């Protein structure tokens, strides 16, 4: 009961932080470093990623060469799957509920600093099995070295930095 109350009480702060980060999203743009906001509550897992395109593609300008065009097309196709971003424990029996991916480069828009933004939601049939998750992005994108994670979980609020050498987030 106390943990549920703490999560509910923390939610407005988390939403406020999310709004502030979204309003000033390019101020903290740093190659190799992404951001993840995560809420694990009941049977729901919600995640919001912000990752520099340079960390995913090796460039953040509109693609110029055939190889760059293929890399961007491959990334756009791959990011259409929630499992590209997060691997949840099989025992939790989680199913993707929603996935929204946005990048100016996907729309052909020029930007000085281009990011990929992704919002995911999962619904889990066995939420008691949710004790950790893995970020497969690190294996697929060696230029991505870390994710700054702000998290609300059944254990409370926390901020950690997840590194490529240990891509598992535990709570």
Would you mind describing this structure in some detail?
The protein has 171 residues and is of the alpha+beta class. Helices cover 26% and strands 35% of the residues. It has helices at 2-23, 53-57, 66-78, 137-140, and strands at 33-41, 44-52, 94-103, 115-124, 132-134, 146-153, 156-163, 168-170. The chain has a 6-stranded mixed β-sheet. The model is unreliable at 12-27 (pLDDT under 50).
Order of helices and strands: HEEHHEEEHEEE
Q: Major sheet, described briefly?
A: 6 strands, mixed
Largest sheet: spatial strand order: 3-4-2-1-6-7
Overall 3D shape: globular
* Secondary structure tally, helices: 4
Helix content class? 25-40%
Topology:
Layout: H1 2-23, E1 33-41, E2 44-52, H2 53-57, H3 66-78, E3 94-103, E4 115-124, E5 132-134, H4 137-140, E6 146-153, E7 156-163, E8 168-170
Parallel strand pairs: 1-6
Antiparallel strand pairs: 1-2, 2-4, 3-4, 5-8, 6-7
Offer a quick outline of the entry:
The protein has 171 residues and is an alpha+beta fold.
């Amino acid at each position: 009961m106390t943990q549920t109350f703490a999560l509910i009480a923390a939610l407005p702060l988390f939403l406020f932080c999310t709004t502030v980060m979204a309003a000033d999203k390019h101020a903290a743009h740093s190659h190799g470093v992404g951001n993840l906001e995560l809420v694990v509550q009941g049977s729901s897992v919600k995640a919001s990623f912000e990752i520099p395109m340079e960390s995913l593609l090796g460039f953040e300008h509109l693609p110029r060469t055939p190889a760059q065009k293929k890399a961007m097309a491959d990334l756009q196709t791959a990011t259409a799957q929630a499992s590209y971003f997060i691997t949840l424990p099989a025992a939790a029996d989680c199913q993707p509920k929603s996935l929204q991916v946005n990048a100016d480069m996907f729309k052909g828009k020029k930007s000085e600093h281009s990011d990929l933004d992704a919002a995911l939601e999962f619904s889990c049939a066995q939420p008691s099995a949710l004790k950790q998750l893995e970020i497969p992005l690190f294996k697929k994108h060696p230029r991505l070295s870390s994710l700054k994670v702000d998290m609300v979980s059944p254990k409370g609020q926390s901020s950690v930095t997840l590194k490529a050498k240990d891509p598992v987030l535990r709570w």
